[in-house]
Amino acid sequence: MTALAVETPTPLWSGRAVVRAAGRMELHVAVDGVQVPAAVMFTVPVECHPDAASAPGVRPWAGPVDERRLCASCLRALRGEPEPKPARHVPTAADGSSPEPGPQRRGRGLWAIPDLPTYPAPSLPAEHGGRPIRWSEWVEAPKLSDHPSACGWCGDAGPCMRAGGRQGNPLAKDNPLRWFVAYRCSYCQDTRVYEQAGAADLKPIAHFKPKAPKGVRA
Question: How far apart are CA 150 and CA 185, in angstroms?
Fold first, then answer.
């Protein structure tokens, strides 16, 4: 009698370098053939951002790899699947976004509500002081209890979006590291970019004014 061999399927990321997103525990799969440097933080093309110019900041990862911790966009790219379409918000009376129908509409069936206008997000500055900046992906900014989360221009309740930037090379003495941060309203796209001049000091370097009317979401 011979024992049956149980064949374990090879993971999609087998043979690829796996790295951790900077500041988060989400894992990314590096593109095929990428060599991961031995730096504390670096930028390499990953499956969800294969262009090196827009690759996010990452850190080395030598721990176990679980599919539940892998970036969903990286997995879709490895499988050849398209990105899902964003879910469309349906206004309801419960969330206050559906106005009360007038007397002429009471007692009737469903009625259409026009979609709110959308505004494109600006492109973050590619350089500052003649040197390039590498930006991370936009992520939801943490809420601060002592700081209002509503947008100062359109009044949107938030949360706003945040992206981190890096300039320089930690391995080069003549190219010191500089850090940047950008905040963006997720509705009107009011965007402000700062250079981190100290532990808690932010120096404004760019402001992209929104095209939305002032107070439209207040």
Answer: 9
Residue 1 pLDDT > 50, yes or no? no
Kindly report whether the global pTM for this prediction surpasses the value 0.90: no
Beta bridge partners of 205: none
17 close to 59: Cβ distance less than 8 angstroms: no
3-state secondary structure of 76: helix
For 200, the token pair is 């808690």
**CA of 101: how far to CAs of 64, 110, 137, 149, 155, in Å?**
55, 10, 41, 31, 25
Distance CA 150, CA 143 (A): 10
**What is the per-residue pLDDT across 42-94, written as a single tens digit (0 to 9) for each?**
888 998 888 877 788 888 888 888 888 898 889 998 888 887 777 666 655 55
Residue bearing tokens 């398209």: 82
Question: Residue 14: what residue type?
Answer: S
78-108 exposure pattern, b = at least 16 Cβ within 10 A, e = fewer: beeeeeeeeeeeeeeeeeeeeeeeeeeeeee
